[in-house]
Design a protein that fits this description.
Blueprint lengths: L1 E6 L4 H11 L7 E7 L5 H8 L4 E3 L6 E4 L2 E4 L1 H14 L4 E4 L8 H6 L4 E5 L11 H8 L3 E8 L9 E8 L6 H24 L3 E4 L2 E4 L2
Parallel strand pairs: 1-2, 1-6, 2-3, 6-7
Antiparallel strand pairs: 4-5, 7-8, 8-9, 10-11
Helix pairs in contact: 1-6
Bound molecules: 5-O-phosphono-beta-D-ribofuranosylamine.
The site of 5-O-phosphono-beta-D-ribofuranosylamine has 14 residues, from helix 1, strand 7 and helix 6.
């Protein structure tokens, strides 16, 4: 199974996935491309250093000016992204800190084949700064969620979740660190099930086929 990783930053989830493929925890899979909208993303740099197929898809190439105002053409950008996924025969797209909403064209073409990791227990605290949202809300438990991607923001069918305690004197850094350690394990478990063909989606419900 050919996996594409989409990322915008650090890339620790990407590295965890790569390691799991290398050590056999995820079987029947290979990362065929790592794509980023950020040229300087550390995750993209890591992919380059591994000699992997690291692709910077430059948002600046999809800007246009109308009446002196600069716009970003999301559809054209994602159409180029879709071309890349197809050209690399990608079967599964793993979003790993990809800070951009994937548009409908990609989601339709890859329905049930795009997954994401989010640092909260969805449906609580979707969107950015999920850990900060949990702290500010006063939640006593947070965690992480791996889910299929649909047209909404962090709204797709949930594959797996792990809980993490929120302590009384917690801060964003400590909570994020605690959640991230669980993210790495959870994402691998979910991808391993996917690549073995063991995940079944029925409406919002995802089950593990035994
Ligand atoms: C993770 O917390 C992930 O849940 C969120 O973005 C962060 C990416 O971290 N979507 P990394 O780039 O994988 O280290």
């Amino acid at each position: 199974m050919n996996i594409a990783i989409l990322l915008s930053g650090r890339g620790s989830n990407f590295l965890a996935i790569k390691e799991a493929i290398d050590n056999g925890a995820i079987s029947n899979a290979q990362i065929v491309c790592v794509i980023s909208n950020k040229e300087q993303a550390a995750g993209l740099e890591s992919a380059r250093n591994f000699g992997m197929n690291a692709i910077f898809l430059n948002p600046a190439d999809y800007k246009y000016i109308e009446n002196g105002v600069s716009y970003f053409d999301r559809n054209a950008y994602d159409s180029a992204l879709l071309d890349l996924l197809k050209a690399n025969n990608v079967d599964l797209v793993c979003l790993a800190g990809y800070m951009r909403v994937v548009t409908e064209a990609v989601i339709n073409e890859y329905a049930g084949r795009i997954i994401n990791i989010h640092p909260s227990l969805l449906p609580s605290f979707p969107g950015i700064d999920a850990q900060k949202q949990a702290l500010n809300y006063g939640a006593k438990v947070s965690g992480c969620t791996v889910h299929f991607v649909d047209k909404g923001v962090d709204t797709g069918p949930i594959i797996m979740q792990t809980t993490v305690p929120v302590f009384q004197d917690d801060n964003e850094h400590e909570l994020s660190k605690r959640i991230l350690a669980e993210e790495h394990k959870l994402y691998i478990k979910a991808i391993a099930l996917y690549t073995k063909g063991l995940l079944k989606i029925e409406g919002r419900k995802v089950s593990v086929v035994s």
